[in-house]
Fold:
Amino acid sequence: METIALSLDTVWMLLAAMLVFWMQPGFALCEAGFTRSKNTANILMKNFVDFMFGSLLFFFLGFGFMFGSEGAGFVGAPNWGDLSFYKGSLPVEGFLIFETVFCATSATIVSGAMAERTKFSMYLVYSAVISLFIYPIEGHWTWGGGWLCNGEEDSFMMQTFGDVFHDFAGSAIVHSVGGVLALVGAIALGPRRGKYGADGRSRAIPGHNLAMAALGVFILWLGWFGFNPGSQLAASGEVNRTAISHVFLTTNLAAVAGGTATMFLTYIKYGKPSLSLTLNGVLAGLVGITAGCDLVSPFGAVIIGLICGVVLVFAIEFIDHRLHIDDPVGASSVHGVCGILGTLMTGLLSVSSGALYGHGWGFFGAQLFGITVIDLWAALCGIVLFYGIKRLHGLRVDERIEDEGLDIYEHGESCYN
Structure:
């Protein structure tokens, strides 16, 4: 029976990994649809690079940085292609591929905010650094058993908050990190030409294919059913079956609540329900629920989705109109703002330890501290990375290339004839 259970758990983990991998074309189509046709090949190429580079670099070093040394230090021991250090019960090769698809997702988030003006050669550099260094180290602090998730009585988190940081599937570890890096990268690049007028007002630059973007969001939505329920890493036994079913439900409820909230808010605010913003509203709900999908009730999931769907609209407006940061796909709002918000709301709405359920503020404090440390790490690394590239080699393409499109100049081909 143990062998059958382990086999079932392994198959479920690999199936979930396939669903998370399927999010890559979702991101590709979503980003391409929200941007102009002259840059479509560039967008698609970057999404392939994220997975190709991410897979190789995470295998050689990232997996060891994240899961090596039994979570004892700032970073795990590099594995240099030897996976024998892994002590889990699941097959190491299967667990590696499951973690690889998560790593690739974090890097992919950044590409949308920096679309239509980034040198492809420099994209290769920062995609590699994210997969090799930035993501695995903060992942080691959390999923790798490091100090933010150390539940021993004498650990820093238990001594300080009486609880450990919790991020079930990556609102903070994957999404907020990607969102913060996206924001820093967009600041370092500057806005697209023509985005802001002489008076400082934002000018809309419509995407070329909302049908493509909508298909991308549907694919991402499907992939999230691997992203969140798959993080249970087991399907056998009554506890695991119940947990997976619960996570499926909370994930979907947050998604539909987020989309619904954004749709009605844009209807009220602008007089018409915005498709593009509603698509991001669905993603906002999904990002927000990812941290606590295992701990919150179905009603709590709806609350998280509604709040993320509303906050998203104001976050996009604030970043664009007030801060004058050009993020073509809203990645810094969807993944950054809503990733942070979802992580914090887990501290409030967790049935077992949330502050609003009468369990005190220790768990919320752990969530607040954890998301702060993780995103400060991402921001500092992003500043060094993007401004270092900008100073040493240049991060942005020439004006003529940006005006005429990156497809022909960077890749010598176009998606459309």
Q: What stands out?
A: Residues 238-270 form the longest helix (33 residues). DSSP finds 15 helices and no strands in the chain.
